[in-house]
Design goal:
With 510 residues, the chain is mainly alpha-helical. 72% of the residues lie in helices and 3% in strands. The chain has 19 helices and 3 strands. Strands 1-2-3 form a 3-stranded antiparallel β-sheet, with no helix packed on it. β2 and β3 form a beta hairpin. The longest helix is centred in the N-terminal third of the chain and has 34 residues.
């Protein structure tokens, strides 16, 4: 009987062939299309199993391949078979959350590269137009004029509408501003300042959107590493901008690097629009196993966006909020001083040419990209090892402030460009540990309002960055050196470390 049934299953003749025997089917190890039967522990009700290749009249009929099994709850076309399962397995080889973090790392790279282009291009522009050091500080800070306003608004929009749409809109707008920058510089200084302010306005949504999206797509024990990868892209944007811009300025002219990075932004946007969702459960590409892993690794469910703006007064009434704000102020103060003034610093103090100055400035940012990931991985390891979240955040942030403070004090005694680059590399490498400190702490204390909290703290940090960027220019013009301002920055790092360790917490507050 078994051999007879087998012949019927593999027959290609025009005669009718019907199989209904339960016992004989269970004896088969595997059918042609790859299904393998199970030995059932209890009686199974088989509603139908039919394979027909012809009619009794001898006329060919449309082939029907269908299995129905009420015990398993399965109803699907048998033609998918092994090939379909292999395609599904291949689709899951790269988890969706890794695709999200790679896209975020790429856009953060573009975000910073677009900023750095102006830090290098301003040197020939200043020579051409005869700008003073104090006016250079105003031009450098004009980016921050728009950035300070969009941080709060962008953070609130991210909380309300999700990170995907807000970030995509921001990329489109800042790519347009990047494209228009060389035209504005040739037209007038007023146009240049306006375009740079608009550029900052568009870029203000990037960090809140990144932080919120990563908190949705990654379980708690992977979040620091995900932020490390994304911020590695951010720091590599400095390297890309500092290395590519001088080459393109000398070969193509001022328009070259601006057109390149604006085009890359629009290219990224075409991939982002169809490849990412605000929440993992909204994605049509994510597997059930990955979704379960993400959901199991969260202590809180995803916040519900009810269309209402969160209570700002409540956020500002708690000391852990102010610990984050002061940490962001200090971080941005030191970061933007180094970002905006390092090419000028190497050219002024050590009298190196523009390409050499950019190269010396690029090395620390490249190392910072690696150290940021190491900081994130270390943080995740400590959390998995059982250390409290509060302790881990305090350790990471202390390294991120004390290390740069000591390094900047040592930078005052550097007498060669190589030794200066070493001190800057140490300072920036250790400052990247802040990514596993205050930057993650926003989601810890206020997961529902993290976007707005990021915006508030980033606006305060941006104000500090404006003061430090302009202040550096005036200090250098007034005192003739960078030493005084580097010392002020180091002291600020030490004071913020004390405040952070007194009032920061890893527990949920809001």
């Amino acid at each position: 009987m078994a051999s007879q049934t087998k012949n019927l299953l593999h027959s290609h003749s025009s005669c009718p062939c019907y199989v209904t025997s339960q016992s004989n089917l269970i004896k088969f190890r595997r059918t042609h299309v790859g299904f393998e039967p199970r030995v059932l522990s209890q009686n199974t009700k088989w509603e139908s199993l039919s394979l027909s290749c012809g009619s009794k009249s001898g006329k060919p009929e449309k082939k029907k391949w269908e299995v129905k099994c009420t015990a398993e709850g399965i109803e699907r076309g048998m033609l998918m078979g092994r090939r379909g399962r292999e395609e599904a397995t291949a689709k899951e080889l790269v988890p969706e959350r890794f695709k999200v973090v790679v896209l975020l790392a790429c856009v953060m790279c573009l975000c910073n590269a677009d900023r750095v282009v102006m830090s290098v291009a301003i040197v020939p522009l200043a020579t051409k137009h005869g700008w003073s050091n104090s006016f250079l500080g105003i031009v450098q800070s004009s980016f921050l004029w728009g950035y300070i306003f969009s941080s709060v608004i962008g953070g609130a929009l991210v909380d309300r509408y999700g990170g995907k749409r807000v970030l995509g809109t921001g990329v489109a707008l800042w790519s347009l501003a990047t494209l228009l920058t060389p035209w504005a510089a040739n037209h007038s200084t007023t146009s240049l300042l306006a375009i740079r302010a608009f550029f900052g306005l568009a870029e203000g949504v990037a960090l809140p959107a990144m932080n919120t999206l990563l908190s949705r797509w990654f379980p708690n024990h992977e979040r620091a590493s995900a932020v490390g990868i994304s911020m590695a892209g951010f720091h590599l944007g400095n390297v890309a901008g500092l290395l590519v811009t001088p080459i393109m300025l000398s070969t193509i002219g001022i328009t070259g690097p601006f057109i390149l990075f604006a085009s890359l932004g629009l290219l990224w946007l075409s991939t982002w629009a169809h490849g990412v969702t605000n929440e993992p459960q909204e994605s049509q590409f994510i597997s059930k196993s990955e979704l379960r892993l993400i959901q199991a690794g969260k202590t809180d469910s995803s916040p519900v966006r009810d269309g209402k703006f969160p209570p700002v007064r409540l956020l500002l009434s708690k000391l852990p909020t102010w610990a984050i704000i002061f940490a962001n102020v200090t971080n941005n103060w030191g970061y933007f001083v180094l970002l905006s003034w390092m090419p000028v610093y190497f050219k002024t103090v050590f009298n190196v040419n523009l390409r050499q100055a950019a190269s010396f400035s690029a090395v620390p940012w490249g190392i910072m990209a690696l150290s940021g990931y190491i900081a994130g991985a270390t943080s995740d390891y400590l959390i998995k090892a059982g250390f409290s979240l509060t302790l881990v955040r305090k350790i990471m942030q202390s390294i991120g402030f004390i290390g740069p403070g000591v390094s900047l004090l040592c930078l005052n005694f550097a007498n060669t460009p190589i030794s200066a680059a070493v001190y800057l590399t140490i300072a920036l490498s250790l400052s990247s540990f802040s990514q596993a400190g205050f930057l993650l702490n926003m989601q810890d204390i206020a997961p529902q309002y993290a976007g707005l909290l990021h915006g508030i703290s980033n606006s305060a940090g941006t104000l500090a960055a404006i003061i430090s960027t302009i202040g550096t220019g005036y200090f250098v013009q007034w005192l003739g050196s960078f030493q005084a301002f580097l010392t002020v920055t180091a002291v600020l790092y030490f004071m913020s470390t004390i405040f952070w360790n007194l009032f920061a917490t890893g527990e949920r507050v809001f």
